Amino acid sequence: AQKITQTQPGMFVQEKEAVTLDCTYDTSDPSYGLFWYKQPSSGEMIFLIYQGSYDQQNATEGRYSLNFQKARKSANLVISASQLGDSAMYFCAMREGLKGGADGLTFGKGTHLIIQP
Amino acid sequence: SAVISQKPSRDICQRGTSLTIQCQVDSQVTMMFWYRQQPGQSLTLIATANQGSEATYESGFVIDKFPISRPNLTFSTLTVSNMSPEDSSIYLCSAGGGISGELFFGEGSRLTVL
């Protein structure tokens, strides 16, 4: 079974609108972290936001927020007031175990977000 | 945050040859990770490189095909051996060290095998 599922292969959004990118995850480990990365066409991976499994509040970083619903095992990324520069691939990822552990991240298949003027 | 440099950034290789990708981190890190991103696909972890011990490979990846070196806490190499067109991918080096445990990534090495 996939550990990270992103069900939206692509999304078109009008500039200045808010956009929600879906991510569900599967783990039996009570300790885990969820990450979102942005990959523009240039290819670099840019870390956006992190949510720990024990965090009580949803994470926010500027225009990015994470809608964390633990019981539903979902960690959707919300981008407010979208901009043309937000057009990119977005990947949800998870690390199982405690923060700072030795394991790499498991990535979802990604969502290609296109912001239209 | 860690700054990670990879080289080469891109290369075109002939079938049957091998290529070594270098990864340099600007700070000492315990773990380094190598990922593969096939065209239009997500990132797949190849192996975890820990200084002073053999790399740990994920299912579907073997040392003979992807030998890894980790001579010190700031450097690692990944070799793609006996390449075939199916090895055409972006190979990304990453390391931890973020406050939230996030990984930082190099710019990637885009390999095309003819």
Count of β-strands of chain B: 11
Kindly report the oligomeric state of this protein.
heterodimer
Low-confidence blocks of residues of chain B: none
Biggest sheet statistics of chain B: 7 strands, mixed
Helix/sheet category of chain B? mainly beta
The helix tally of chain A amounts to 0
> Number of helix segments of chain B?
0
Q: Order of helices and strands of chain B, N to C?
A: EEEEEEEEEEE
How far is the first residue's CA from the last residue's CA of chain A?
38 Å
Residues in helices of chain A, as a percent range: under 10%
Order of helices and strands of chain A: EEEEEEEEEEEE
**Please, what is the average pLDDT of chain A?**
93
Largest interface, C-beta closer than 8 angstroms, per-chain residues = A-B, 22 and 25 residues
Question: Averaging pLDDT over every residue of chain B, what do you get?
Answer: 93
What gross morphology of chain A would you assign?
Answer: globular
Class by SSE composition of chain A: mainly beta
Q: Would you kindly provide a written description of the structure presented here, covering whatever features stand out?
A:
The complex is a heterodimer of chains A (117) and B (114). With 117 residues, chain A is mainly β. Chain A is 0% helix and 50% strand. Chain A contains no helices and twelve strands. In chain A, a hairpin with a 6-residue loop joins strand 5 and strand 6. Chain A is globular, with a radius of gyration of 14 Å. The model of chain A has no long low-confidence stretch (mean pLDDT 93). Chain B is mainly β. Chain B has no helices and eleven strands. Chain B is globular. Chains A and B meet through strand 6 and strand 11 of A and strand 4, strand 5, strand 9 and strand 10 of B.
What is this structure, in a nutshell?
The complex is a heterodimer of chains A (117) and B (114). Chain A is an all-beta fold and 117 residues long.
Describe the protein's topology.
The complex is a heterodimer of chains A (117) and B (114).
Chain A: E1 4-5, E2 10-14, E3 19-21, E4 24-25, E5 32-39, E6 46-52, E7 60-61, E8 64-69, E9 74-79, E10 88-96, E11 106-107, E12 111-116
Parallel strand pairs in A: 2-12
Antiparallel strand pairs in A: 1-4, 3-9, 5-6, 5-10, 7-8, 8-9, 10-11, 10-12
Chain B: E1 4-7, E2 10-13, E3 19-25, E4 31-37, E5 43-50, E6 56-57, E7 68-72, E8 75-80, E9 89-95, E10 104-105, E11 109-113
Parallel strand pairs in B: 2-11
Antiparallel strand pairs in B: 1-3, 3-8, 4-5, 4-9, 5-6, 7-8, 9-10, 9-11
